[in-house]
Specification:
Two copies of one chain form a homodimer.
Chain A: H1 3-13, E1 17-21, H2 38-50, E2 56-59, H3 61-65, H4 68-79, E3 87-94, H5 98-109, H6 111-114, E4 120-123, H7 129-136, E5 142-148, H8 154-158, E6 161-162, E7 165-166, H9 167-175, E8 184-188, H10 196-202, E9 208-210, H11 220-227, E10 234-238, H12 240-243, H13 251-272
Helix pairs in contact in A: 2-4, 2-13, 5-7
Chain lengths: ~280, ~280
């Protein structure tokens, strides 16, 4: 899904919601454990219940890897279930030297090689340009680079002062020279709403992937106040507060209700900026 | 394998060699493709041929993930084939917010959960302390934090000047407060030999995992000149120049010869410092 198609979906659905599929098998409703692949079954029902309210799904790779082969199989089958009207983001936070990053790109972008073809992948910036560029070699795929993360430890290095602003600002400025806003997004945590204004100086119309709304305490209103751009420019992720809204048989309906609440808020926010 | 046991193995084998199992299925001898799991067969023969000459094996996760489920299975079976006399390092360069890092730790440290129980994992530092600590919660396991990587792009951010030295020096100083040299190692590329002297100021007796000798152009002599510590303190990795020394039926013997060359050099270097 390219930038134009993504913006189109945002207009159609009046939503810039990303649903995080952090599917912890310990937390899904017990009755699903009778299915051959409980995690896949859970994800399919979540997707069926929410795909008209969101524009992206983001499985976090860790929750699948923790279960070994069974988990990897759930991830592959989930990736193939994400509908074409939604951006498929693998939250993998990879990054390695060039020839190795190419292998990671094949793992998540090249269906013939791995069985998966996500539209986008999250990447850690520490190893620099040649760890990122192999992902950009895949046409029409996105790199979503970690800039300012929502966790407490994000402060340890990301806020360090450098000659070109703080480290996360330096990362954005440098990465802007690797690809344009049609191939690159940045991760900016919702728990740092006051920083969005600042980040928009360096990335005025890039899409920002924003985790941390909901369970982590970030506010959608605050994020949008400073973060919305001309082309919307935000994908706001919510994971636990949607997918684990209920642990009963009604989990999918309850997930839909939670997604609907966020989508309704987003609709108003988009109207306010005349999008 | 704890620090004492690792140092013991270095003394017994007169070696601080780590063999990188970057097993690209495109590069292994063609006759292996008749086996049920060609990559596993390749790795087993490499391990059989070299385990008395090296103290660690390091599969890079990317080469396995690129092959989807088949690759993940090769990785699990390889992890279980690494002998107890060698440190099993998964080169995965992970890192995420706390509860998610716990899932990554389960993926690579918790056999009951994932089928794998490596001794050590490489971690990217960008997300800070709470992305690293969940791995340290697993007793007797090691975190190997990226500090100064061997690739060209490593310069993009790692050399940035901060109030506490360059970024990679800052990373080492901060990470020293998260765990001692019995639980934490640092990745320092062999292509930056001149920096070892400097790094030893901050990590005088930590083990450093050193990629980049061989195919990437780093020199073992140079690395040891500045990098060897009282307790050896180095694990020097070589991947392609050992495992792909031959593409014929003699690949394992040729791998042994290459490993033996490095081990012999290491034996002399260890003698020189009276280890």
């Amino acid at each position: 899904m390219n930038r134009k198609q993504l913006i189109e979906q945002i207009k159609i659905k009046k939503s810039f919601l990303c649903v995080g599929l952090d599917t912890d098998i310990e937390l899904i409703p017990k009755f699903l454990l009778d299915f051959e692949d409980p995690v896949l079954e859970f994800n399919k029902r979540i997707i069926d219940a929410t795909h008209d309210l969101c524009v992206a799904y983001k499985p976090n790779s860790a929750f699948y890897e923790s279960r070994g082969i069974a988990g990897w199989k759930s991830l592959i089958d989930t990736s193939n279930y994400i509908p074409e009207t939604c951006l498929g983001i693998i939250d993998a936070k990879r990054g390695d030297i060039g020839n190795t990053s190419t292998m990671y790109a094949k793992a998540f972008f090249d269906h013939a090689s791995s069985g998966m073809s996500f539209d986008a992948i999250t990447i850690a910036p520490y190893m620099g340009s040649d760890s990122v560029k192999p992902f950009l070699a895949f046409e029409d795929k996105w790199v979503i680079l970690l800039a300012l993360t929502s966790n407490e430890g994000g402060k340890d290095f990301q806020f360090i002062d450098t000659e070109n602003g703080r480290l996360f600002e330096n990362v954005i400025q440098k990465a802007n020279s690797w690809a344009g806003n049609d191939r690159m997004m940045y991760v900016v945590g919702a728990t740092r709403a006051e920083e969005f204004l600042n980040i928009r100086k360096f990335a005025p119309d890039h899409f920002l992937l924003v985790p941390g709304v909901g369970a982590q305490g970030g506010s959608l209103q605050e994020v949008c106040k400073y973060g919305l751009s001309e082309s919307c420019g935000l994908l706001v992720n919510s994971s636990r507060s949607i997918i684990f809204a209920s642990s009963g048989e009604d989990f999918a309906e309850r997930a839909r209700e939670e997604a609907k609440k966020l989508q309704s808020e987003m609709e108003i926010l988009l109207e306010e900026i005349g999008f």
